[in-house]
């Protein structure tokens, strides 16, 4: 706080220690997809395939078409399931319940009580998406199917037919979610305030993968970076983009703060001159020229029409962007399930000698880099992981500050509005276990307020 009791500085502090990068050294390269997926119990699929793609590059392997289709179908089912989880269960209380809902009811149970039919449908169809992960991945939580150069086994025609039925159900729910969003969520004045208020707008640069036609692609593609004004900064091979990024450190957190090297680190500030960028659903929507599927494209057009600007800088718009991506993931899963080559038997490519490689993928929360160096025996010499929440760390901190400025008045904390601070970082769907690579993944929230003399004035545990 400043001398008048107003907000001076606000940060999101993550004190848990990093670990995975160090203890992966000396392990066999082929073990990495199973090791790194245990960083996080919510998004193991992203780490599993990012790791496999890094190993593809380390061994110079060309992944056969049937294996690539399996991986991509699996990954779209993951994106759908993960986005649905956040929209309804994690971010749902912010979207689907009135702002004055009592704290005891502002949770998933409150959402299910308020919208029981939708809740039942969500649980049923998400289970079907998880079944796709199980059928292709071997396990839904910690998959075991991706190997350097391919996948473990072909997909049978019987399993393909089951997957196809699950994917069609995903498309049906995606359409219902869009209708519900426009009829029940968007008309809410509180939601409109969060979407359109200048106080909730954070102009930054954006990063994400796009396919050859400029649509978001979660599994592979070129990396595109656009400025806060929408100008293209970079469009090229994803692995080479690491040379554009540097990481800033602070003594109060184990999370690093990536920034665009050319613009430099200018502190925690947003805008065209800042090096801070964001990733994730909103970023992918902003760097894309179009969506890859028809229903998602329709929703994308409504999205930009609503805001009247491109790129969109409203942090709360991450939720809407997540819905658009969920629609594309469902449609793409349905399309991929019908590809003739999906059940082909050639699922492992030839491996060369071990070396260095980078795997880049779009996790649900944003761009994920796995960078490995293997020795002559195929053992891991060095690992660097740059995960979505790390990319977003500076943006999350700025969003928390924006909301905190509305909550703290004359040294007093308005607990009625404290949920707004949580809403600021919840929009990013942050995975703090990923960002610090720590265990066991618990994220208790503690709000501490300090005076100008550094003394603790108040501590609130949520």
Derived from helix and strand composition plus strand pairing, the structural class reads: alpha+beta
CATH superfamily of the domain at 62-199 and 314-346: Cytochrome-c3 Hydrogenase, chain B
Measured as a percent range, the helix fraction is 40-55%
Biggest sheet features: 4 strands, mixed
- Level-2 CATH architecture of the domain at 62-199 and 314-346: Orthogonal Bundle
Calculate the terminal CA-CA distance, rounded to whole Å. 21 Å
Our count of helices gives 16
Portion in beta strands: 5-15%
In angstroms, what is the radius of gyration? Answer: 22 Å
> Outline, from the CA principal axes?
globular
CATH topology of the domain at 62-199 and 314-346: Cytochrome-c3 Hydrogenase, chain B
| Biggest sheet strand line-up | 5-4-3-8
SS elements, strand count: 15
Q: Poorly predicted ranges (pLDDT <50, ≥5 residues)?
A: 433-443
Whole-number mean pLDDT:
90
State the CATH class of the domain at 62-199 and 314-346: Mainly Alpha
Concise structural overview:
By secondary structure, the chain is of the alpha+beta class.
Commentary on this structure:
The chain is of the alpha+beta class. It has a domain of 171 residues: Cytochrome-c3 Hydrogenase, chain B (Orthogonal Bundle), CATH 1.10.645. The chain has a four-stranded mixed sheet with strand order 5-4-3-8. It has a three-stranded antiparallel sheet with strand order 9-10-11. A hairpin with a 5-residue loop joins strand 14 and strand 15. The radius of gyration is 22 Å and the shape is globular. The two termini are 21 Å apart. 48% of the residues are buried.
């Amino acid at each position: 706080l400043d001398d008048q009791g107003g907000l001076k500085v606000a940060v999101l502090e993550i004190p848990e220690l990093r670990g995975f990068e160090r203890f992966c050294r000396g392990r066999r390269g082929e073990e990495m997809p199973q090791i790194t997926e245990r960083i996080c119990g919510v998004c193991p699929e992203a780490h599993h395939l990012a790791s496999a793609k890094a190993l593809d590059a380390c061994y110079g392997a060309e992944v056969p078409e049937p294996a690539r289709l399996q991986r991509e179908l699996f990954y779209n089912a993951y994106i759908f399931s993960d986005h649905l989880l956040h929209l309804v269960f994690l971010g749902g209380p912010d979207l689907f319940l009135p702002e004055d809902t009592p704290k005891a009811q502002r949770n998933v149970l409150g959402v299910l009580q308020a919208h029981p039919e939708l809740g039942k449908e969500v649980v049923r169809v998400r289970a079907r998406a998880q079944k796709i992960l199980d059928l292709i991945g071997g396990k839904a939580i910690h998959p075991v199917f991706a190997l350097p150069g391919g996948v473990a086994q072909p997909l049978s025609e019987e399993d393909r037919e089951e997957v196809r039925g699950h994917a069609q159900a995903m498309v049906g729910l995606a359409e219902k979610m869009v209708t519900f969003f426009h009829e029940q969520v968007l008309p809410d004045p509180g939601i409109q305030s969060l979407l359109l208020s200048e106080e909730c707008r954070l102009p930054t640069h954006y990063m994400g993968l796009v396919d050859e036609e400029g649509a978001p692609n979660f599994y592979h593609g070129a990396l595109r970076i656009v400025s806060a004004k929408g100008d293209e900064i970079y469009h090229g091979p994803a692995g080479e983009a690491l040379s554009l990024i540097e990481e800033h450190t602070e003594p109060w957190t184990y999370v690093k703060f990536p920034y665009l090297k050319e613009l430099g680190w200018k502190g925690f500030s947003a805008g065209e001159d800042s090096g801070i960028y964001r990733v994730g659903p909103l970023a992918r929507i902003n760097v894309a020229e179009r969506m890859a599927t028809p229903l998602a494209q329709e929703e994308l057009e409504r999205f930009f029409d609503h805001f009247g600007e491109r790129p969109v800088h409203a942090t709360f718009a991450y939720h809407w962007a997540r819905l658009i991506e969920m629609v594309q993931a469902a449609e793409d899963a349905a399309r991929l399930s019908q590809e003739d080559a999906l059940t082909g038997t050639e699922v492992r490519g030839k491996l060369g000698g071990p070396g260095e490689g980078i795997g880049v993928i779009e996790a649900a929360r944003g761009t994920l880099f796995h960078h490995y160096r293997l020795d002559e025996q195929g053992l891991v010499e060095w690992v660097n992981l740059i995960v979505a929440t790390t990319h977003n760390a500076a943006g999350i901190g700025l969003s928390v500050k924006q909301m905190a400025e509305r909550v703290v008045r004359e040294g007093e904390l308005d607990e009625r509005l404290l949920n707004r601070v949580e809403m600021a970082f919840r929009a990013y769907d942050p995975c703090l276990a990923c960002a610090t690579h720590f265990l066991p993944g618990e994220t208790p929230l503690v709000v501490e307020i300090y005076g100008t003399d550094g003394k603790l004035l108040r501590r609130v545990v949520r």
